[in-house]
């Protein structure tokens, strides 16, 4: 039996609640398959840890995480801890230390989900954003000069290396070719005359190796507009760290809301663990009330299963989410229902059990 060692960082706010339901579903799938299992190890890192110890994680936290096959992250952030501390001292340090240079964000209007766009069909919104995840605008390079003085100056540098830019674009081309889909690059070369001109040139260079992939390229402002007015033109999308961060939230808005937004931080070479997370935030206002929406956490679990090679189970989870959304019998208040977090998790376990047993018997 294959054992996958998973580091669980439940994090802050609603993080522990939704992660608990995701773990419940993953354990049930492993139990039903019996050829593999999960070994979960929990780490108490996050903002509460910071208030006690003055740091978001143990000093040797990265060394501890190296021993795992994947990381399952709940949510990070809580009032009283500055956002740049909670982000840079946990999430981003993990992404960078483990070279998780691919961020995968599905933007798909699931069956039963409600789009903010009128007259939109499910097939109209089916994108995969591939976001550069370790450098670019989030490289952390810059300076703060003459702080507090009249001539105060801050410098925030975006760093685009040829290695970093080419590898994310090539990864996107590989996905587009494998799935037989179009690839759209999003930049801002008219205004950012170094970084984005470079990005566009590398995209054109790499495209020569993939003549079978149909491509398009848009400025980020035009892309934001087109995602709303004509979303079906986007299939596979590759873009920089900042643009990917912003546009995927636009994607969440048109594809059912942030409560359905999942993300994967991938180290393609598997030298280090990859990390899977819902991206809805910690929602401290409802923490501890059993009202949080675990659907994005389920979806990120499906991404983990895909990564481990169990795509059929990843599809079962996504199908289960669609069943929950379509029947509307058990949904949390943010989705228009009255169910608790744990009730939704129990129902999801019931659905995946039925689907997996049905496929085996069928």
TrEMBL record:
This is D-malate dehydrogenase (decarboxylating). It is an enzyme of class 1 (oxidoreductase). PROSITE patterns: IDH_IMDH. Its EC number is 1.1.1.83. InterPro entries: ICDH/IPMDH (IPR050501), IsoCit/isopropylmalate_DH_CS (IPR019818), IsoPropMal-DH-like_dom (IPR024084), TTC_DH (IPR011829). The gene is ycsA. Belongs to the isocitrate and isopropylmalate dehydrogenases family. The keyword Manganese applies. It catalyses: (R)-malate + NAD(+) = pyruvate + CO2 + NADH. Keywords: Manganese, Metal-binding, NAD, Oxidoreductase. NCBIfam families: PRK03437.1, TTC. Its cofactor is Mg(2+); Mn(2+). The keyword Nucleotide-binding does not apply. SUPFAM superfamilies: Isocitrate/Isopropylmalate dehydrogenase-like. Residues 5-348 form the Isopropylmalate dehydrogenase-like domain. It comes from the Bacteria.
